[in-house]
Amino acid sequence: MVTDPISDMLAQLQNAGKVHKSSITLPYSKLRHAVATALVDAGFVASVSKRGKKAVKPQMEIGLVYDVKGLHRISGALRLSKPSRRVYIGAKDIKPVRHGYGKIFLSSPKGIMTGDEAKKAKVGGEALFKIW
After folding, report:
1. Taking residues 109-129, what's their average pLDDT?
2. Which residues have CB under 8 Å from 70's CB, separation 6+?
3. For 13-37, what is the mean pLDDT?
4. CB-based contact 20:70 (threshold 8 Å)
5. Pick the residue with more confidence: 8 or 54?
6. Residue 108: strand, helix, or coil
7. pLDDT score, position 53
8. Looking at residue 55, what is its pLDDT?
9. Does residue 2 register a pLDDT over 90?
10. Is 126 exposed, middle or buried (CB count within 10 Å of its CB: 0-12, 13-18, 19+)?
């Protein structure tokens, strides 16, 4: 059993990108689906789809993105808030990641969003992870 599903998802995305897979399949949860949808909106992942019904364990398939040179779009990720230690950031404290080449993802009252979106909406929240 995985105690931190977001860390597990990020590790699987990085590992799949290193071996040039086209997609990965993960167990479905609303949190993972919301994070994957935010990654699609930010351009780090190509697509997200849910497969399976209630009788069968639902799965989530995530399509990966590669650039022209064949490099994976996700070169690194850092989990900020963990089950043992939650980290919260206000809208004024959101800083650029890797001089603007990466993004920070927050869980705010308005849903899971990037740091740029949270800054525009003037809302803070739990800092989930940084990705570049």
Report:
1. 97
2. 20
3. 96
4. yes
5. 8
6. strand
7. 77
8. 67
9. no
10. middle
Domain that holds residue 22: 5-131
Q: Name beta bridge partners: 120.
A: none
Report the CATH number at residue 18.
3.30.1490.10
Q: Which helix (H) or strand (E) holds 23?
A: strand 23-27
Helix 5-18 with 30-42: angle, nearest 10 deg: 50
**pTM greater than 0.90 (yes/no):** yes
Task: Look at the block and give the residue holding tokens 């992942």.
Answer: 45
Tell me the C-alpha distance between 71 and 52, whole Å.
Answer: 31
Selected residue with higher pLDDT from 53 and 95: 95
The residue behind tokens 């899971």 is 112
Locate 39 and state its tokens. 């990654």
Could you give the number of structural domains in the chain? 1
Both structure tokens of 62 = 């995530």
Query: SS3 of 15, please?
Result: helix
